[in-house]
Amino acid sequence: MTEQQEAMRVQPGEVLLDAEDIAQVVAQLGRRISSDYSGRHPILINLLKGGVVFLADLIRQITIPHHIEFMGVSSYENGTRSSGNVRILEDLTRSIEGRDVIIVEDVIDTGTTLAYILNMLQLRNPRSIEVCALLRKTQVSDRTHIPVRYIGREIPDVFIVGYGLDYDENYRHLPHIARLDLPGE
Ligand code: IMP
Ligand code: MG
Fold first, then answer.
1. 151 - beta bridge partners?
2. Does any ligand 1 atom lie closer than 6 A to the CB of residue 83?
3. What is the pLDDT of residues 114-132, one digit of tens each?
């Protein structure tokens, strides 16, 4: 059996948020950002690849002018636990100096990725930086305690897939977010 076939043997289970739940949460975040940043022109920085589906939906719920940028980061090395090592795979194409930045993240688990990115971006002198995360796993595992202004939903500390989130690059296409239990974890 190939590695891909092996990975596909683990199937997503219980649905934590269906497509309708997600749409509601995203619409609410879009409204809040539109009102908080009224009269400004923020840059939304999306963390690839998990956050891409969220970003695509979120920007269509934002009614004020804004730019988008992408940053390729990796913290999980093909597993289900954060490795603690954040790697920058792709950097921004524009300067963020003097700009209002909103980091758009799919899920905050340990907070390692965000803490690293926040520190790095602060050094580039933006006017402000806030975080918008679709999901945050229970505080217990958020060891870095990053201030997150926008959180769509708090969820239990379980591994999830769908709506951009993957397990070994699979299941990003699911329209809902489901729990994935791995044997032996
Ligand atoms: P952290 O650095 O531990 O906060 O992990 C954050 C990153 O790991 C997120 O940007 C996700 O891409 C990924 N991640 C965290 N939890 C999950 C999960 O349950 N499923 C899939 N990816 C996850
Ligand atoms: Mg991610």
1. 133
2. no
3. 999 999 999 999 999 999 9
